[in-house]
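DM from R.C. (forwarded with permission)

"hey, sorry to bug you on a friday — could you get me a structure for this? deadline for the figure draft is monday and I only need the backbone to look sensible"
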Amino acid sequence: MKRRSFLAGAGVVAATAATLPKPAIASGVKRLKMVTTWPKNFPGMGVSAERLATRIKTMTEGQVEIRVYAADELVPALQAFDTVSSGAAEVYHGAEYYWQGKSPAFNFFTTVPNGMIATELNAWMYHGGGQQLWDELSAQFNIKPFMASNTGVQMGGWFRKEINTLEDFKGLRIRMPGLGGEVMRKLDAAAVTLAGNQIYQALQNGTIDATEWVGPWNDMTFGFHQVADYYYWPGFHEPGPALAVGFNKTVWDGFTPSQQAAVEAACAAENDYTLAEFNYQNAKSLQTLIKDHNVKLRRFSPEIRARLTALSDEVVEEAGNSDAFTKRVYESYKASLALSREWTRIADQAFVEARQGIALD
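My reply, with the result:
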């Protein structure tokens, strides 16, 4: 664990803590604050956070009320984890790979390049020991985590120029967080992490040359098609990223068993609902981008795809072996992926290929 990073982060939010209202627990009602890493009411992630708060209130019969704050309303997006860890707020909604500076293991609980799709991640987390490892990791920071959304497979990103060869990545300034950013660096690109509400301006003013975000639905909402001409697929970096809710563990431990069960069920329901929402809205939005906005849809060349795959496996292995705990997570993740991959191949993948008339082996 990178304890210095954690303590430094806690120090950053200490001043903020004094200005945040304290949780109100009166007449059996727990009133909590949720800080998020998303713009206010942003389609998908931001709305999902609001919807989850409503689910929890309904399922606890009003015993747990959560007020949702967008990024920068109370604290900056990337301070959400430290704010909840310290107790300055009680819940966060974000992506665990944002906290990789505390432990590389956090990446595996969002997504890793060339890794699990959403159904495979759910299998590991719910049935393959992933949640137990996540609990163990997060407890060291006074957090109790849950999956609460999934965007499904993400796109390769928006580029202001065509990417035809591996040479085109050299010197490219691209917004790509997590281990995907490490893959870009191995291609001699300059990868940076920016919160969602900072990306458009950075792309518009030339601070960055390219960005990944999510997929057609969210990307169109941000208007990336107005400042970048080329939209690439397939994504390699985020094949099925889970978005997380983290409760301050002291607060979580103060819930009754029925309240804990209701919150857990609400998170699982929202995780499933949001994946379906993204799949539907992405399909619609992609057609709009192509037909109404003349977006130039491009597929990465076979050469590029092969190199991205090889570098992804290299980066994930390096991260997975970076310390003893992360190695435990990596070995569990890898074993579950090996199991799921074969079933995915002869079930989902084979059916989709047959449906499209692709000749099978």
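R.C.: lifesaver. The longest strand covers residues 29-36.
me: no worries. The first helix runs from residue 3 to 19.
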